[in-house]
Amino acid sequence: MKLLILLFFLLCLSVLVGIRGETGADSSNYMNFFVKSTTGLLDYDSSIKRYSEEGFYFISAAIKTFTNNYLIYFILIAIITFSFYYKSIRYFSIFPLLSVAYYLARFMPFREMNQIRGALAIAVIIYSLRFLVSGKKCRYVIGCIVASLFHFSSIIVLPFVFFAQNRFTVKRIIILILFSFIAGFFIQAFLKSILLSSGNVVMLTYVGEKDLGYHNPILYYQIGVCVLYSYFGAILEPMQKGYSVLRNAYLYSVLILCLTAGLGTIGGRLSTIFATCEIFIIPSFILVFKQKYIGAATVLTLISLIFLMNYNRMAADSAIWSYKLPFI
Questions:
Q1: CB 136 within 8 A of CB 43
Q2: Taking the CA of residue 207 as centre, how many other CA atoms within 13 Å lie in the half-sphere pointing to its CB?
């Protein structure tokens, strides 16, 4: 019954993001991409595509073969994305419905309702983490390669295969975070100079966007979650499948964020992939409380606060994020 409820909620979310119309900064771009710049499989021509990832264009062309309706397109892309999350939540999560609630509050508006290529790629990578739990490294690598066909940034998590099962102590994790935090100040200046010399307009736009950098509270939130998840490892590891892989993946995300926090949107785009592991990590903290109802109340409060934070963030830019049904 719980799995049916989980599946029902994910299907509802697929419809919710699918009928959003132009809600989101990038939605209108994807609408035009699908309607005007995508062929069907019968007259397949990827030379006209506006996005360079061949895999995403192929999926779009497959859908275009049967319909030119962008609402159906959005819904089907969402269903594919959430199908991977359904399998991942079943595999990793101790409290599946809380994982869905956390994903809705923390990630969904800025992925499935905005950056749908990146959202699909991340879903594939999170699904592929299971292969590292069972020691099937080649399958994880294949998963990363497939994800990179939807969004090139996915390739950043390929090196994770080499230390996915490492046994990091809390002390070592704190040292790694401090080192990355300090190194980030020097790396951002170096990388910015490279981007300036390259003349890459898109990347320079990302770096030039207003961003909180090292004043971003999300950076310190992730550091705190990472340290706490490691500190309570003795309690959580026996009860959460793939604990070591999840902990190391989240640490990987935190280290990337520390190193690139000063690079504007780029830092967020690169670190957000494994930050998604929060959907398994945060609900598991219920288990560290002696009184489980207090743990559940704490997690629900956190989810509510994150939802309100993101809601206020979207409300501040209502011209982009105002949810309007296109058929009303």
A1: no
A2: 18
